[in-house]
């Protein structure tokens, strides 16, 4: 039910939607829109595009994410996590290439949703998500240093972080005290309001205060108006991105990266909303919504869309009851743009840089990092490798390598969790004596210290990660007795590698004249062994160890 391909909006309307819920959603939508207004423009500027594209993204993409999504509370829009990828794509392929990559990523996400792949995206290990989020935060902050200090660079700011820091250090003589003061004022107001008035829209208030101070004091700080000439007062006419075979091939890797990161971010955000509300989102429907949202954003000149944790959490805390809240958030943003677009020209870029600096600081999950570093060396290594690769190499490379390291760590742990031990035959014999069908002991019970039988119990998932250790033990004892019982009652799963190990055990037992019993194996796992030619008379399947021991007792020559 949780993976139904039906928007949550349809479920909400089927439940009944009245004026009381609409009022709650309208208030929540307004609150989120006030938060999203400065943030959307700041993210767009940091991504190397004009601020209006951030608003287009939040309006069009945000509306579609809520209208079509699989979460009641998800709010979509431009996200800080995409700044690195979007700015790099815009630098390599221009705005047209960026729009095409966004469009293609939307198609990929929609296809992934229709194929019901959403549940697999959530398999990304926790240390990987914490590591790449922290890495992105570092890169975002580094990208804002120039604006925070009002530095003037010769040419475009370098992409790689070490080159960026070198260029920024070389530009230190251009330090602008006014810009730094505006940024510091913005950060101070945000932190002060969070402490004293946490329910107030601190981002918008801080940007407003900084803008008023800049205008009244005639501070020599660059604004949206001086750099971009302001923002338009309406949405553009939708148009398809420029298509050409060469451009499609060129931007395809970027589109894949957009789709992968968008899927991870949106589903993580939906999981956070689930934890806050007790609801359950539909992961595949969420991917479909993200897909259509990115296609729609690209058609209107916007950038990448994803579910955003900060705005989604604000939506929940503001009392949202349904996806209507997210849809109204997009409508309020459109209203703000239509009415107050001229005022955006007065917003200092240093103020928006201050907003992003706070966002970057909040993205670093400090308690989670501390817990992972304490948990184990393996988790700490996955976290560190992911973080370092994201910061110094590439975001996608960091996720892929981190995922592979996490998978190897999991396999190692699962392999060590498999246990194989010899069982005591006397205890099992007494169980047989007490379990006679007529309530009495058999006429000739098995001798308690039967030297001809050995029993081994396997506990845990018997798979390729444990095959070597289990196989070495089985190989040593397979020809030591006349009867070998392998108790698989506590084996929930085995794979073809495990079946091959058992087949090797049976082959050796056949040469030595040892009879092999597989006890307690689940029917579906028995079919896997039979597919490997493991069936009677090569071995005997028994419902349990007691049944195997009874059959051994019945076959004794002295019975």
Automatic annotation (TrEMBL):
InterPro entries assigned to the protein according to its UniProt record, in alphabetical order: SLC26A/SulP_dom, SLC26A/SulP_fam, STAS_dom, STAS_dom_sf
GO terms classed as biological process: transmembrane transport
Keywords: Membrane, Transmembrane, Transmembrane helix
GO CC aspect terms: membrane
Subcellular location: Membrane
All residue ranges annotated as the STAS domain in the record: 443-552
Annotated membrane topology: Multi-pass membrane protein
Superkingdom to which the source organism belongs: Bacteria
Main location per the UniProt record: membrane
Protein's name in the database: STAS domain-containing protein
Residues spanning the membrane: 26-46, 58-86, 98-117, 124-145, 175-193, 200-219, 255-275, 287-310, 330-361, 382-411, 454-474
Pfam family, one: STAS
